[in-house]
Design brief:
The structure is a single chain. By secondary structure, the chain is of the alpha/beta class. The chain has 2 domains: 141 residues, Peptidoglycan recognition protein-like (Lysozyme-like, 3-Layer(aba) Sandwich); 63 residues, no CATH class. The chain is 41% helix and 8% strand. It has 10 helices and 5 strands; from the N terminus they run ααβαββαβαβααααα. It has a 5-stranded mixed beta sheet, with helices on both faces. α8 crosses α10. The radius of gyration is 24 Å and the shape is globular.
Length: 272
């Protein structure tokens, strides 16, 4: 073999080796992501098909000129219940898990946006808030790298607040619509765990909170379960609903519900 050819083959081998080394570990899943996004885009621009023979469709399709993308109106905050950001990223790129989130925020504050805000992530699961039962379709999911038994880092919360500021402004999300996974699925989930600083988030403009309850009197006929329902909690399992409320607003994981809890609930109830 001629020296020139040998050098060329060696050069190509080095280039391929460097390419393989520098290629993202998520190259294959990123490619799959793009393919799925393109498929959804093709569905969006296609002419509606008459799918139900029993309906009297018009012979000619007329498309409106006045429309825009549907936008999210809620933010659901989670903890990952895993031991690292890398572990979570892998979980969200395995087809068999069927779980995902729009954003993952690592303990060091690094933000991974894994999905366009307008796409529907699989983060809420079976859940309910008020009369809404398909939380995935109208919300943005944010996962915080936390195994569920540790405090949230300062840098992580700083990144979260900065992200929430952008989302709230971009989509005009109401203050009350920043809630936790444990709020919408109280029988299944407890994230973000009781250490999460909801009061700090409220002070930044995200989520509701309560004021000093000194002097507040609870009427004898106050129905705390109906008040929980009006706030948004699913009271089908009343113990789970009360536990979720206390975890969020009192950093308490018990279901006991006395005068102190009712005073706080009354304040929040009146905001609705």
């Amino acid at each position: 073999m001629k020296p020139l050819i040998k050098r060329f083959i060696l050069f190509c081998s080095v280039v391929l080796f460097l390419y393989a080394c520098n290629r993202s570990a998520y190259h294959a899943t990123n490619k799959s992501h793009k393919q799925q996004a393109y498929q959804l885009a093709r569905e969006l621009v296609s002419v509606p098909v008459q799918q139900h023979a029993s309906l009297s469709y018009a012979k000619e399709w007329v498309g409106t000129t006045n429309f825009s993308l549907r936008k999210p109106n809620m933010v659901i905050i989670h903890h990952t219940a895993q031991n690292s950001c890398d572990q979570t990223l892998r979980t969200f790129t395995l087809t068999r898990t069927q779980v995902s989130s729009h954003y993952v925020i690592c303990a060091d504050g690094t933000i991974h946006q894994m999905l366009n805000d307008y796409f529907r992530a699989h983060h809420a699961g079976v859940s309910k808030w008020g009369n809404m039962t398909d939380l995935n379709s109208g919300s943005i999911g944010i996962e915080l790298d936390n195994n569920g038994y540790q405090p949230f880092s300062e840098r992580q919360i700083e990144s979260l607040v900065a992200l929430l500021e952008q989302l709230k402004k971009k989509y005009q999300i109401p203050t009350a619509n920043f809630i936790g996974h444990g709020d919408i699925a109280p029988t299944r989930k407890n994230d973000p765990n009781w250490r999460f600083p909801w009061k700090q988030l409220h002070e930044k403009g995200f989520g509701l909170w309560w004021k000093d309850t000194t002097g507040v009197k609870v009427p004898e006929n106050f129905n705390h379960l109906q008040a929980l329902r009006i706030v948004g909690y699913d009271i089908a399992d009343s113990s789970a609903a009360k536990r979720a409320f206390k975890r969020h607003f009192m950093q308490d994981t018990t279901a006991q519900f006395g005068t102190s809890e009712k005073k706080i609930l009354m304040q929040l109830y009146t905001q609705f």
